[in-house]
Amino acid sequence: MVAHSRGNVLSSILDEDERDDILASFRGLADMSLPNATHRIVSRSKEHRQIIAVSLPPDPSPGDLREAAGAGVRAAGEARSVVVDMPHANAKEFEALAEGAGLGAYRFTAYKSGAGAATKVSVVTGVPAAPVKRVRRILEAQCAVRDLVNTPGGDLGPSEFVRRIRSLADDAGGSAIDVEVLEEEELRAKGCGGLLGVGKGSQEPPRLVRMEWNPVGARVHIALVGKGITFDSGGMSLKSHEGLADMKTDMAGAASAAAAVQACAGLRIPARVTAWLCVAENMLSASAIRVGDVLRIAD
């Protein structure tokens, strides 16, 4: 995968014949002047090699590079291997390219039989000490969030969500992350009437999860709060069919906060990071809260 800008093919590995093939194929393609436009070319000089050109603005920012790399890798479909060969001058730009390419290769295949192998992505770079480990940790965290958000609510109720949060903490290594789960009785004792009310209509009780990375010598304390409603039907105020379609994603805030703590621990960020995750399932049943009920919530 290469970049195209100002009528030039920006590549450090393609030979002159391949560059000419690409430029010739652009004739008549007005959309290649648009940001992140992609065009696939089959190389005449290298058998079986397909080249994907992605358009870049004249002076691309790291954000432009991230989006272009993602667009190019997505355009490659289910290719076994993609080499990203795009211009970048420093570690920040390398990180943007690598992150975009990695996210572009993401596939959710948990419910597919016979899913092919994941696409292997390589980034050509001349940047010394490129932050490969940092990019890998950030990608792992983002892909973990995507996996959780893509999982149907029927397979990701409160208990399963909490199990996966614990798994994220374990993946950080050793006892780096402390996880505390407040169950229904503890929530009642602490006056957490709001969370208890939201989860009242579900067969699964709600939980409040505290997830913390607290390294020795931490200089600051960062607090995160994540909404973890594994499915939000609206309860007695039932949503429309269109409104219900994406309500499995109502736990994305808690998933993002949990993954952020995992990434901070994996990268050994010198900050104390505490995430509070409100986990519940908002369902309609005979036990659900009624419109007009009073919920008692501690200060």
UniProtKB/TrEMBL annotation:
What would you give as a GO molecular function for this chain, any one? Answer: manganese ion binding
Keyword match Hydrolase: yes
Residue ranges the record marks as coiled coil = none
Give me the Gene Ontology terms describing cellular component. Answer: cytoplasm
User: Where on the tree of life does the source sit, at the highest rank?
Assistant: Bacteria
Which InterPro entries does the annotation name?
A: Leucine_aapep/pepB (IPR011356), Macro_dom-like (IPR043472), Peptidase_M17_C (IPR000819), Peptidase_M17_N (IPR008283)
Record keywords: Aminopeptidase, Hydrolase, Protease
Q: Does the keyword Ribonucleoprotein apply?
A: no
Give the GO terms filed under biological process for this record.
proteolysis
Q: Where is the Peptidase M17 leucyl aminopeptidase N-terminal domain?
A: 61-113
Domain Cytosol aminopeptidase, chain residue ranges per copy: 145-297
UniProt family annotation: Belongs to the peptidase M17 family.
Q: What does this protein do?
A: Presumably involved in the processing and regular turnover of intracellular proteins. Catalyzes the removal of unsubstituted N-terminal amino acids from various peptides.
**Protein name per the record:** Probable cytosol aminopeptidase
- Protein species of origin: Peptidiphaga gingivicola
Lineage of producing organism: Bacteria, Bacillati, Actinomycetota, Actinomycetes, Actinomycetales
